[in-house]
Amino acid sequence: MIAEFRSAVGPEHVLTSPEDTLPYGFDGTATLRCSPGVVVFPGNTAEVAECVRIAGRYGAPVVTRGSGTGLSGGSVPVKDGVVLCLVRMDAILEVDPRNLTLRAQCGAITLKVDEAAAAHGLFYPPDPGSLKISTIGGNVAENSGGLRGLKYGVTRDYVMALEVVLPDGSIAKLGNGCVKDVAGYSLKDLFIGSEGTLGIVTEVLLKVLPRPAARKTMLATFEDMESAAKAVSAIIAAKIIPCTLEFLDGMTVRCVEEYAGIGLPVDCGALLLMETDGHPAAVEDEAACMVEIVREHGAHEIRTAKDAEEGLKLASARRSAFSALARVRPTTILEDVTVPRSALAEMVAYIAAVAAKHGLMVGTFGHMGDGNLHPTFLTDERNADEMERVHLALEEIVAKTLALGGTITGEHGVGLAKKMWLKRQMGDASYELMKLVKASLDPRGLLNPGKIFD
Amino acid sequence: MTPSLREIDYSVLQQCMHCGMCLPTCPTYDTTRRERNSPRGRIALMRSIADGELQLGKEFAKEMSYCLGCLACQTACPAGVDYARLFETARADIERQGIQDEPSRIFWRTLTLRILFMNPRLLRLAGRVLYFYQKAGFDRAMRRLGLMRLLPGNLRRLEPQTPQVCSRFSHDLIRADESPAGETRHRVALLTGCVQDLAFSSINRDTADVLLANGCAVHTPAWQPCCGSLHAHNGEPEMAAVLARRMIDLLPPEEFDAIITNAGGCGSHLRHYSHLLADDPRYAERAREWDRKVRDIHEWLVAIGPRVPGASPFESETTVTYHESCHLTHGQKIVAQPRVLLRMIPGLRYVELPEASWCCGSAGVYNITQPEQSARMLDRKISHIAGTRALVLATSNPGCHLQIARGLREQGLAVTVEQPVTLLARAYRRETLSA
């Protein structure tokens, strides 16, 4: 099989030594690790298809990955299996300002996609925290969200068409470049967020928007998380949809400040990052309204970024929150439970209570405007007793999330990390339907086996 | 005895939660797009070695030599992974186990690390010999006659990169004790460095002048040991500890307001003596005091409030750009201060260099051990410098200085390389001329 891979993609693009393959044994998820037997770097769609056919002939499981920044174990390999790493396929093929679309290969870095759009005054809104290194193909596979999800939604909302290699090695084009397209089943949507279990996305056609003319970034500090959550609910209730309403709890603020050194107020219980974009007049108006609302809800300190540069700095501080929390304890376990926005304050309080009950350290931050929370357990995987309590706490948080009508994952996907809870959220019928889809597309179960469900 | 990867505090390895934020900042990952060539991949390998899952072998050794040690990853890392410590531990492990040992490598390492850089008198003697060899034109003659082929491989590669050795070294230019003309506000020690001393002794003189012009009495011992940074970065922590003790004995930190260094690479190592000597009961406390007193020259000047020169170092307005030495920027986090000083100088138009903090490929002996990767990075750096249309490139580490000067020369660009301190010293000197 190795020899066939070598002749398919060139010998220099096939890695087999333990030093080469071992670093492909994980993604950004803590505690999940498994070394592949071979890592192959195809250079184009035809080579991806050929690799899938070769692996199929040998019955070898194939796990596809980009930069490996996923947070649910979606690209963690199968022991001794094949990893298809698509970072060589990183071209941005076309920006089409007439149709407001952008075509890119799967390995294109998310930030580069937005920069390519920006060169034409356009904007690619989804912005996962890892956008400096995550790939667009990975974003599609995991249906990634980001800091602007509140106003702009997630990756799905920007995918118009996909080129996909199917488990049998055939190549399919799904969706098209029309704004309106209702021909047949929406197959492209089936593949978005399918975590590499149904096919391998090799090329994407994305919708891009005119770049907002103005943007304003503000932050406000609060005594505690509940008052911040209430302020957020009040902003939404006032029918304002800013692009970003992010929060960090006190511990997260302190870790981020230690890393970024941008002068965040570190003595607060919670910090709210607010951003509004669009027409300059609307931006001014929305910003003023938000300032008024947070003040009414007891904000201690309200700061407005004086320019775009400072705004970017504040937003990038928020992007680093997850990694910055790793300063506190050796192992960092991140969740992305999401609840309806009206249940935010209750959920935030519940997380704090569960952490206290089990004697655990939890830093919480997230996308408050869309109800997407990131309770982050700061622990040590070598401490079996503590890990046991982490799992208990996680169970309770998930149970509460589902009771509130929430979801086990808002933007990271199910992968390995959350598959034990999927059935509970979906119910039997839709769970079985998912398995049926997988079985009909990939009857031998060779593409990313064991992810989402067994 | 420094710990091996098997013994190191495991939480340093765990600190990496493989988020990947380091990848876009890593020059070797940027080149190959292979995980093992990234900080995240290297730490994964180290962790597997610590776990006993992977043997410490030739491939790992090769990987650790491919790493520049530029520490850009450390700046980028939100989780605060101490990559420098992991890197030095891994390299020390590799040396201890003799994985890369072969006769010529042992010979050169012994000659440089164990002999020359352990003994300042021998180093200067070697410098003197090299100076006369270059001055007499033997180097050009040998090249013309094709005799370079007789040299062993790595020396042959090294030869064209040998710096032009100065005719006079720092102790010929700087008296052991010098006092400012006016009031003495601070008392500092000046470290002259090894490469800096041999190749750029005038920069040491400039540093002393700038200190004097800012009210500092300067103590500069004639014979100074190497700071040990070469040893620490190349897997010889025990020798680095010996040198650290000698340095502390020579310049007792309690006697000075600051111990000044003007080389980014040395400075980055010098402020970590407390790690190196943590288990030495006689030196641990003094090493902590030492670490507190070590100051990069730019950092020190900005901290004490630098005097704005009354003259320009140039005849007419000149555009200057600035390349950040990795160990100044990532190792010491000194980013703003050199720019503050440059912007303060009259007659100097400062332009920002794109990718100013991207490594130039010098990285100690990297340009000898990894010539291809080093050349790739140098080309990238030179093309950015050319793009700024600056006439002067300022930088603060002798390795970068030599590497970039060579790149500019090879591309035929009329850009000179200067230490920011040199420009400042020149400006102060011209005050009297213009007055």
From TrEMBL, chain B:
InterPro entries: 4Fe4S_Fe-S-bd, 4Fe4S_Fe_S_CS, Cys_rich_dom, Glc_ox_4Fe-4S, Helical_ferredxn. PROSITE patterns: 4FE4S_FER_1 (PS00198), 4FE4S_FER_2 (PS51379). Residues 4-37, 58-81 form the 4Fe-4S ferredoxin-type domain. The keyword Oxidoreductase does not apply. Its EC number is 1.1.99.14. Binds 2 [4Fe-4S] clusters. Keywords: 4Fe-4S, Electron transport, Iron, Iron-sulfur, Metal-binding, Repeat, Transport. GO terms for molecular function: 4 iron, 4 sulfur cluster binding; glycolate dehydrogenase activity; metal ion binding. Its cofactor is [4Fe-4S] cluster. The keyword Aminoacyl-tRNA synthetase does not apply. Coiled coil: none annotated. It holds the Pfam family Fer4_8. It catalyses: glycolate + A = glyoxylate + AH2; (R)-lactate + A = pyruvate + AH2. It comes from the Bacteria. PANTHER family: GLYCOLATE OXIDASE IRON-SULFUR SUBUNIT. Component of a complex that catalyzes the oxidation of glycolate to glyoxylate. This is Glycolate oxidase iron-sulfur subunit. It comes from Luteolibacter luteus.
